[in-house]
User: Fold these one by one.
Assistant:
Number 1:
Amino acid sequence: MRKYVFILSVILLLIPLSLGIVSFFYTPYPITEMDIDNRFSGISKAHLLGTDQFGRDLLSRLMVASRYALLLGTVSVTLGLCAGAFIGVISALSNKWISMIFLRFIDGMLAFPGIVLAMMFVVVFGDGLYSTLIAIAIFMIPIFARLTYSLIKEQQHALYIVAAKSMGLSTPRIVWRHYLPVILPRLVTQFSASIGSAILIESALSYLGLGVVPPNASFGLMLKEAQSFMLSYPYLILPSGILLVITVLGLNLMGDTLNDRLMKLGDTHD
Amino acid sequence: MILSCEHVSKNFKDTIAVKDVSLELEEAESIGIVGESGSGKSTLANILGGLVRPNSGTVYFEGENIMDMKKHNDLNFRQNVQFVFQSPKESLHPYLKVRTSLREPFFAKGRPRTTKKEMDREILRALERVQLNETVLDKYPHQLSGGQAQRISIVRAMITDPKVVIFDEAVSALDILVQKEVIEILKKLRHNIRTSYLFITHDISTVKSLTDRIIVMKDGKIVETGKTDDILNNPQAPYTKKLIASAI
């Protein structure tokens, strides 16, 4: 069963991934090109998914939106993972006071709902793609820091770690060679699931007008633009809505199956 | 004198684990620290090996207080005092193959760089000494038997020729036959290498052929100490007599 779920997640993810990759080289129309004569054209040979209120090709915009969503999700979560894991390691291995300062800071950040925190940072940094990316990365830091901290604390008294210390290995080597192989599966699982969250936050920010700004394309922005015409032209909302669901569902399913698979691997090694 | 401690005490909250213990380990000497569970022998071993800080007292390595050591000497201490733990499989990294685990001691802080070829040559030589062949190198700890895993742990502790090896209940978790095998290997190693041994065990019979002296501990304190033959043949303290009787 797990195998089929994994295959399903790969198939789901291949849709936005292939659209996003192809968009680097080719889109049927430039995403900002307006064709006033063909507003709300509906599905046609010339526009496979129809056009929006400005006559812009929805398929082209959807392809670019997929690219932004996946890139922004992956890059921001990677940044959050690196910074969070570093803070988590420092907190877990430092003395009581340094550890406490880091942990209270992390707790403080975790106390804010994600979207509120991201909105706060976007307001500080200004809107746009890079601000959204940094805001989401900052939002991810405490999640990975907390996870890394607890995973390291869980292993700290394991005999193989005590053995590594007794051998006289340096702390960076112990972290890299001894902690990392054990905590990596959990971090990978969290990474995969967090990309889904990051894409949702980006969409929410763009929907609120704080993320990707027009005339660029993003799932949230397309949804927001389509919302005004939802009753007269309901097809406008479907492509970005469905693709957003497919992307996030694919990432979450992949996270779940990776978690099961990697945990099982861990069991066989114990 | 290679390793010693003076008036060492250690408490864990309200529990006194070690109380005012002093001992000396000479070069190439082998000492057994014997006592029942909770007698403080493992805590004492961890203090001597620098893994636990005592509440009071001092530990000396080659005459220098290990708590005051400057970086260079601290590295020297860390490299020269090695451990073999009770649970061999748990002391080996579950995700690393034996070959990788055995290369790790060569990466200790302050050690001169060694090429992988040199490491592997040393590893093969050491494996031969504990009667293992190179097929174990590509296995994970869970694929080894208890005896194989403990011999790998011994190789890991001794591969860089440390001056002191602390065996913390190193044969207790093994079945009788494997225990005998490992003890025979340790006896042979003792004859060939000038390393000092510190054996921590609750079973006095396992150290009788391995040690020059025995220290008997109870409730964190030393109750009797003396040459192995004297302790075994003519124990003075009632507790020692009980320990010997229980081992027979």
Number 2:
Amino acid sequence: MKIHRHNNVFSHTTLSEYCFGTLFITLIFALLSSSCSEERSLNRKVSTFSERIPDKIDFNFHVRPILSDRCYTCHGPDEAKREAGLRLDTEQGALTALGKELNRFAIVPGSPDSSTLVHRIYAESTDDIMPPPESNLTLSPIEKEILKKWIEQGAEWKQHWAFLPPENKVPVVSDELNFVRNDIDKFVLKKLKENGLSPSPRAKDHYLLRRIAFDLTGLPPTLKEVEKFEGKVDEYITYTLNKDAYAERMAAEWLDLARYSDTHGYQDDLERVMWPWRDWVLHAYKNNMPYDQFVTWQLAGDLMENPTREQLVATGFNRNHKITQEGGVIPEEYRVEYVSDRTQTFGTAFLGLSVECAKCHDHKYDPISQKDYYSLYAFFNSVPEKGLIQPYGATPEPFIEITDEEIEKTLTFINNRDTATLIQLMVMEDMEKPRETYVLNRGEYDNPTERVHPRTPETVMEFGDRFPKNRLGLAQWLFDPANPVTARVAVNRLWQMVFGEGIVSTSYDFGNQGALPSHPELLDHLAIKFKDFGWDQKKLLTYILSSGTYQQSSKLNEDLLRIDPENRLLARSPRKRMTAEMLRDNALAVSGLLNEDLGGPSVKPYQPEGLWAEKTGGGGGSTAKYVQDKGEDVYRRSIYTFWKRTVPPPSMMTFDGASRDFCVVKRQSTTTPLQALVMLNDPQIIEASKVLALNLYHETKEVETQITSAFYKITSRKPSSDELSQLKDLYFENQEDFKTGNKTQELLSVGQFDIADDQATPELASLTSVILTIFNLDESISLS
Amino acid sequence: MSEKKIISERAYSMNRRNFLSKTSIGLGVASLSSLLGMSFLKAGENEVIKSAINNGIPHFAPKAKRVIYLFQSGGPSQYELFDHKPLLRKMQGQDLPESVRNGQRLTGMTAFQESFPLAGSQFDFKKYGKAGIEMSSILPYTSKIADDICVIRSMYTEAINHDPAITFFQTGSQQPGRPSIGSWLSYGLGSENENLPNFVVLLSRGTGRVAGQPLYSRLWGNGFLHSLHQGVQFRSGKDPVLYLNDPDGMSREGKRRILDKLAELNHQQYEDFGDPEITSRIAQYEMAYKMQTSVPDVMNVENESDATYKMYGPNSTVPGTFAANALLARRLIEKDVRFVQLYHMGWDQHFNLPEAIKKQAEDVDQASAALVMDLKQRGLLDETLVIWGGEFGRTNYSQGKITDNSYGRDHHPRSFSIWMAGGGIKPGMVYGETDEFGYNIIKDPVHVHDFQATMLHLLGIDHERLTYKYQGRRFRLTDVHGHVVNDLLA
């Protein structure tokens, strides 16, 4: 973990040279990649712009990202902070006369010389220059040139791309390499050709089967499947989508978005019962509930006509936010927080907009006023709820009680293992008379100003009088055919799930500060397809996974790395690190330990001792001390691992699990030393290694076969002769080691799985260590 | 995401330049690791951060290189420690005048109390040091370092309850999700140590209130920063860092063989796929291996002298106590760990305050003072910033009835005391002043964001320029607030 702060070899200059030397030359791509890794954007824009300024400047792709990032803080949507009466987020504002005499104009289309904006960005005096020095923002020479050239070319304004209706324009492109498998590939191929690249060859079948299995189920393919579906990759997609494990994989993504947790999340962090809602999510995915219905029920199941119990259960979605029980809080302060959380979740998950930025003041970058924010907030503000859990440990209202009888008859998807207790499940409900909603000055609960009514941000799509002014109307508005964002945001997330990055890499932000789509027409095409498919997610996934783009090899070469290190052009399939869930589930699956039960209450698998106890203050009840489960419960899939928000499962957090404190639609994907420690030393991985070793030992005593078989199971391919011989060397070296002392017995007693004394041999211990090694291969941790 | 890619890119460029051209798999793993070590990777990352984002950190010459933050969780009462208010004793039992409270919102624990009887400290105060800093009799050791510390009596915060208040102090926001101070520093300054995490967290439990306030691991979370910047908890006991120990039965030689084999096989994978992430992973496995010896080494205090143990007090030999953690903090600082964060629980004295706070003070007083003296005698104090304080103060009136020898205090956000030492802080002074009731600040208020801005300043960072762009916005530790308190700077 050392950082040389004065490293001669990699000094500042070297880095810049490197960026200059290797970055891609066309401007559009530069912008795409710059915004997809936000933190680097400044640096990269500078380097890339220097290469070439496009002949025709496009407002959405070239100009708005600059204006938004460097100008909108003071000349944007936030009225209160607007300087000199100038706003650059609307065409009208940008063309308005300025100054006392109203004789100056920031922008005079076609005339940079008469445009104050140009004078100010080129000004040399610190009094005049824009952005001003105290903003800590600067424009690079190239960015200045772009703005100037855009004005020169007539300063054509365009509406933000995400708010324009999607269009389905499948390009015509010649396909010499026989790459195109469906329309997706035409978009990708066209862009590759424009950039002088070709797609990669198709990946080998075993890689594809493995990729498909993990992407759709989060589990490895079985050896039988690998053999049976060799040459039948498309059939395997259909086959895989029909597994229960598909529902679990999709739910894993949805739980992050829905900020699912088994505890309330503040202070003592008491346990809550939300898993029946999770069971419903599994049920919905298993039955391939169309996305519009899936979301509508969660947003407004309670407001539908004669709602079924199932529809009520679905509304638990909006009760997954944190709730406090901390004695002494002011309840209204927290109730406001819960409504804000629902509003933020709605914005991130369904609109792809950071609406929460307009909670305390007008949005700095996007056309969302503070009034818009509280108008959206108003939809979620009529729940008959309290800010503080009272009495301590009670289920927060409103909730429904689910009886065992109901589970037997109607809510059969709830996997209740303790039939003796009545389930109290938090759900949504609106008060008969809606609570009055006010703009809260500075976002403060005790500072109401103007009264507002339920309404959505107009720039997305007008709410009008067509929809009821409640959550049901909100859902109808969301899935109205004319809504430009809903389908885009949803398909982008599915794309991200299989490609690692969305077409819009900032899947949480489609606004002005978000990344531009790498393939805007493709995003539109998919959005329209999704609706044509009747919001059928399995169909859309089949469509994506059947594409030549998805089925490319993930191998890199120098050209690809130099030209497109972030793979925004998709000249190859990405190599992705597995998610936290996949890594553990993979070990459980290949060792045969996996308990495949679907749904039910959360479980407590292995976790280092004392983690909860050392942080508790004495309260918390069942969450004060971690009591590990025994038996089969230890081997459930990771989505069932008990989630304590204030002390989340450490091995999952090490692999970038989301904290579940709020809605997250994109996890980090990092590589750190702590991850190596988990993979090498977590008792679950050791135990899985040992059990797999034992299984193989029972099958054959032939070391070579044992190792080959283990390698095959874990990576879905057979080892090369060189790999095999290296692992064999390791086996025999370690075997000598395990002959000394109690090492064999010690290693083989890790985990609850018992190995009989007569089977605890140095051979088995050594095989265990070899399997542990295979589990730690980059290939086993990644999807190639 | 972005930093990961930066790392990949650096790894790639290195591969191009050094790795593929100069090495073959015949090269020993040791040199492999030195080629691929974290030092290299993070240097790249750090350079990018410095040059592109933060306009070159340090923004000015740093006074401090590292920080030890002795966080007193629960809200220590200023009236029994650092803020002497004789008037409260004189007015013992009388109601807090409404003119003093002046609309301050109260927690649900005392909001409905019929009266607010003022309670004076049961402990006497004396003046210490050249500046005559007043401290109470339950701080016999801290009072001895009066000339080395700066007591701030005019801290204030916005939150009135523990969870939001402690989250606010550690992350600049009351709601969870932002990176903690240590993560920001790790991100902004990088690391100077070879084999240890950059941000280490140590927990201890107070004897004043055993069932008190909980802690949350998100308090040392990296938020939206790269997970390399997360705080790593060092725990007493046999597994000092989670998953650090090899499984039983696995020898070091066996583990070494496994890692060598992994490096070789992963390298073959790299040659096949050309993915720079693979080389990054090889390096991280090496780093993990090194940590397996470096962490136990730093935690092994056996070779500390008797004089040292004596200085830190009898508890310093008991792993997991505040005293032992304070000593460990010094050891970590000596290894150039950037930020050591201690949390000592148990300062939440709503009831039975006099007895409980005396025990709490005993837990930490000697070792806190010893730490400052120890750093000083080793010449480390000048470049190490030491901070002592909690998330808010306590009320000047009693929660519940006052009896002859007992009372309690509720949470109070409007004024409280902390101290800082070393690392460019002006020593031997008191900063700020409260009114004679201790309720309101009358001079030199220091907001939590001001405190954070000042801390960053001491480390050479302009708090307005240490930013990370996430979800379209440039986030800062100090949100959009905070002013450096120049009067505190030496």
